[in-house]
Amino acid sequence: MARTVAGLVPFTSIDFPGYLAAVVFFQGCPLRCPFCHNPNLQPLTDSTQDWSTTLNFLKTRRKRLDGVVFSGGEPLLQSDLPHMLMQIKDLGFKTALHTSGVYPEKLKEIFPLLDWVGLDIKGPWDKYDILCGRKKMAEKVQESLKILIESELNFECRTTCDPKNLKPTDILHIAKDLKSLGVRTYALQKYHTFPEDKNPPSLLDIESFFSHEALGPVQAIFPQLIIR
Ligand code: SF4
Prior knowledge:
α6 (168-181) packs parallel to α8 (212-221). By secondary structure, this protein is of the alpha/beta class. An eight-stranded mixed sheet has the order 1-2-3-4-5-6-7-8. The longest helix is centred in the C-terminal third of the chain and has 14 residues, at 168-181. It has eight helices and eight strands. Iron/sulfur cluster binds next to loops.
């Protein structure tokens, strides 16, 4: 059983909206997003921490935290994910999943074990190959999005604003598309530079996504637009 835990953040108030949570990061991701600030999580290598150690730590946080976030990498790569989620549920935690959405069937299977999902929308569908570093992933993400929209599950769509590959007009395009599909919550995430990025965008370019001029039309579509 794959349980490739890469690390744990013991406390967060922003990764699981409305709840105080810990975040477990899983090793391995099929995508190669150019803006990935955790490229060390991409290869599916051995765990740096075993699951039982992670679980034992979380047991000590039962009275202090509301939930646990499964993040990565891509947690849906973990063949033992349903069992791990069940163990977390048995401890009384609420559960959240951060996913790229490229495994819609696996996502559907674990719905009963989830309380919230954060679904990445890397960019407009016609730019998806570049923004996720792999071909033919847009269809998979669209499928995941459809499954989420048709479900009762709380979820948000979120886009990392990579100024080297996205423009504010792309964000507006995505926002219109998501709204028309019935998405209620949309979040924009600031680009974070990372050591492997040899040609990072300027701070000005990063911030320009969040100017009033750029965001006004997006906020007209999603008045509760989240920026983090
Ligand atoms: S989906 Fe996330 S972990 Fe995977 S390459 Fe993209 S940013 Fe990195």
